[in-house]
Amino acid sequence: MALWMGCYHSTGDADVFPNTGMVNLRSQIDWNLWKRVGHGEDIIKKCGEEALKKGVHNFGVEFYGECYFGNSPDYSQREVQTSDGCDQHCKWDVGGPDTMVIYNLVWDDRRKTQ
After folding, report:
1. Does residue 114 belong to any structural domain of this protein?
2. Number of separate domains in the chain
3. pLDDT, averaged in runs of 10, over the chain (114 residues)
4. Residue 25 lies in a domain
5. Fewer CB within 10 A of the end CB, N or C, for the chain?
6. In what order do the strands lie in the sheet with 99-105?
């Protein structure tokens, strides 16, 4: 399960996660589905699966389908506020240009011992 942690501005060198290891899923976006259901859950799930493969606890989605990963998000970046136009910047819960939605993965460690 992925918990929504917030939407943050991410510009230039000021990123919540490093650019190393980014996975680009933009080619897999079904824009018509997103318009119909109002979210990008399919991409969020795929980014979460990539995070699990990498063994990290957090991931971010930026520009609708770019997945970034790490265990220590840089929360010093400015969080997108309602007054910033949160719906514009964080539409479909997958971030947009220069904005990243952060998720925390919660998984059951007991799976590893079975």
Report:
1. no
2. 1
3. 87 75 93 89 94 94 93 82 66 86 78 44
4. yes
5. C
6. 2-9, 99-105, 58-62, 66-70, 23-24
